[in-house]
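The pair is quoted verbatim underneath.

:::
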Amino acid sequence: MPATRHLVSPGRVPPEEGRPPRSRLARAARLAALPAAHAGRTAVGLGKRIGGRPAEAVAAQVQQRTAAQLFTTLGQLKGGAMKVGQAMSAMEAALPEHLVGPYREALVRLQEAAPPMPTSMVHAQLDRAFPGGWERHLRDFDDQHVAAASVGQVHRATWADGTPVAVKIQYPGAGAALVADLGMLQPLAPVLHAAMPGLDARELFAELRTRLVDELDYAQEAEAQTAFADAYRDDPDIAVPDVLAAEDVVLVTRWLDGTPLSQVIASGTRDDRDRMGLLLVRLLLSSPVRARRLHGDPHPGNFRLLPDGRLGVLDFGATEPLPDGWPARLGPLLAAGRDGDAAALHAEAAAAGLLQPDTVDPPALLALLDPLGPLRTDEYSFTRSWLQDLTWRASDPLGSTARTQRRLTVPPRHLLLQRVASGLVGVLCSLGATVAVDAEVRRWLPGYDDAAGRTQA
């Protein structure tokens, strides 16, 4: 059967719409416009307040307009800029309630959608990947994309053997866009701070800088996804679609039907929220043991609740190989914090290279890990207010928590784990899920259960 092409009529999509701006000047101009516009809106808001408008109404208007521009600009730029927005969306639960509305709508949209490529550009990428004629491989190809991400967008089709497939197509110029973004994201810091107080933008940019280029390599992504698919094949809880083809700028995988995690967050039942929370924790903890890799992108656009209750996992562009599984000292470290054993916690952290013994005293380190409540009860209910309180404590430059954090050293090899854990906690709080975290940690983390039974401090 020949491929079906739903062509877009001339004039409906401008020729360059959907193509990320490639030039450094063009991308810099769009990124620079974000903080400039935010400053301008703030100044206008101040004038309205002086003129008698209520401060709350003015602030809400400024926030709403900033959120709208944030989505439009990051979505159009794609690349590293859009990736920042997606990383923020995983942590939207940390926003104060009076700010969360406008930003949640804008940032959550970044999880599933962005301005699409024109149809002609989509077909050109397919021609590049399948020079012998892509129609022989992909039947019933739908030109309307079903999802968009930082470096590519996804279309639905049928593989030559009749298998329903998802076709991930890389944006032309995505590589150039990523390179252009690496040194240009700093002007976004004031806007990111306005959206999420306590976010360490410099750390976020540094971590993304080391990971983004990897996402352009679809052959590497196919290898990682295959490792996960083999590890979780026939699993009753977690489903990973098989890879059918990886051709330069196109990745073809089996199609997964399901409810996007963002919809579960917005309107899911209590059972569905708790189920997704449990399986997200299980995926994080079990994958270094079963797949010897860590899924490195926990934003909600990468997960589905399947009709049979399993967690569908998508997008393996950012993964961390862990050939030896979990770091050996992580289990004892968390167990010491769980049990309130300040001396053991301090010794484990020093041995792991997280601190110099004479720079942080044991009680201060234990106070830093006080949020380990999820490990101190059979089941823990994650809430936005809990995460907002943690964010406030971490962002207070005069507080003891922030002072202790500044004295710690996180080895570069653990930065992705730190970001994944933070993003996962943000998603759990957005879900409001109740999860038996301690039981899952005991099941999958070596050295954690062995340290059980310490005397409470």
Summary: The chain has three domains: 24-111+176-212, 119-174+214-254, 330-451.
